[in-house]
Predict the 3D structure of the following.
Amino acid sequence: MTIFSRIIAGEIPSYKCAENDKFYAFLDINPLAQGHTLVVPKQEVDYFFDLDDNDLADMVVFAKKVAKALRTAFPCRKVGMAVLGLEVNHAHIHLVPLQSEGDMDFRRAKLQLTPEQMQQTADRILAAYEAR
C-alpha cells in the first residue's frame, strides 16, 4: 500500500482540498508555492499512463476543477500541471499556482508553512471547489 493509498484511507492525515468518488486532492507537504496540490486516483495505480483511458480522462477533468478552485483561492497567472511520478509509486498530478515558469522548478527550495497555514490553505481551496 502506497503512502497516498494510506492518505486516502485516512491512516495518514492530510490537508484535503477536494474529493469525489474516484479521486482525492490534498496539499503537498513540501510545496513549491502556497496551494501546491496533489491529485491522486483512489485506485492504486503506479504509473499515470497505466490508468485506463476513461480514468485518465476523468482524472484530468477532476484536476481541472481543482485547478479552477486553486486559482480562485490563490489568484495567480495560471496553474501549472506536472506529472512526474518518480518519488511515489502512485499516479499523481501536481497543481502549482504560477506567477512565472520558475515557480514550477522542483529543484528549488520548498516553502515551510505551519500546520495552521496549511489548514487555512486547504480550507480556502476546498471552499472554492465546493462553491463551483
